[in-house]
Amino acid sequence: MLWVMTQNKKNIINVKEIRVRDYSTYTKIEGIVNKGFLCTWSRMLGTYPSKERAFEVLTDMHNAIEDNTKHAVTYSMPEN
User: Fold this and answer.
1) Total-model pTM
2) Other Cβ atoms within 10 Å of 75 Cβ, number
3) Closest CA to 51 of 75, 20, 76, 11
4) pLDDT for 16-29, tens place per residue?
5) Is the dihedral of CA 49, 13, 61, 55 positive or negative?
6) Which of 12, 22, 23, 47 has the largest count of CB atoms under 10 Å?
């Protein structure tokens, strides 16, 4: 179980999957909160100026999960 505090510090979300979405002017990290047969519900966890920075954050999240021995993991999205 992964609980993530969003970058704007307004939400703590239990996510099932995390993905990076690259746009022309920014890159965002989304957390998948639920999947249905025909649709997926996601929430934005944070935005970053480059795809490289977003993948650094994603790697940091992976390391936090890998290093944790508890059932639930918490992670706070960095500002930049």
Assistant:
1) 0.88
2) 20
3) 20
4) 999 999 998 999 99
5) negative
6) 47
Q: Kindly give, in sequence order, each residue whose CB lies less than 8 Å from that of residue 57, ignoring residues fewer than 6 positions away.
A: 29, 46, 48, 77, 78
Quickly count: other Cβ atoms within 10 Å of residue 45's Cβ: 23
- What single string gives the DSSP state of each residue in 19-52? EEEE-SS-EEEEEEEEE-SS-EEEEEEEEESSHH
- Say if CB 33 and CB 16 are below 8 A apart: yes
- For residue 27, the tally of other CB atoms under 10 A from its CB is 20
Nearest to 13 by CA among 62, 80, 77, 79: 77
